[in-house]
Design goal:
Blueprint: E1 5-9, E2 14-18, E3 21-26, E4 30-34, E5 40-44, E6 53-62, E7 66-74, E8 79-86, E9 100-103, E10 109-113
Antiparallel strand pairs: 1-4, 2-3, 2-10, 4-5, 5-9, 6-7, 7-8, 8-9
Length: about 110
Amino acid sequence: MSKRITITPAEGTWVVRAGGAVLGETNNALELDEEGHTPVIYFPRQDIGMAFLEPTDHSTTCPWKGEASYFSIMSKSVTYENAVWSYENPKEDVAEIKDHLAFHEQEGVTVEQV
């Protein structure tokens, strides 16, 4: 039995901040709702300041989404290790999240609807 995953357009405008700086803002976010998990907002890559992100060697594999690649957020005073993930080649059932980024909310990293 596979997990149920739904992907829908996230209503409104969404912003992600790290260390107080805005990394991106979009009206085109996606909301991924995976059974048993809190919904996750995915930002289109083109709406994120990629200069703040540094690719890492870390990766994880989800049987339903595929292999996730990670980035660290480089702020002026703090590096948020592996705080961003992306499915570069997602499985067919979740193809909509290709070219999107998700952020691990933590002290100093926030994702919010504005």
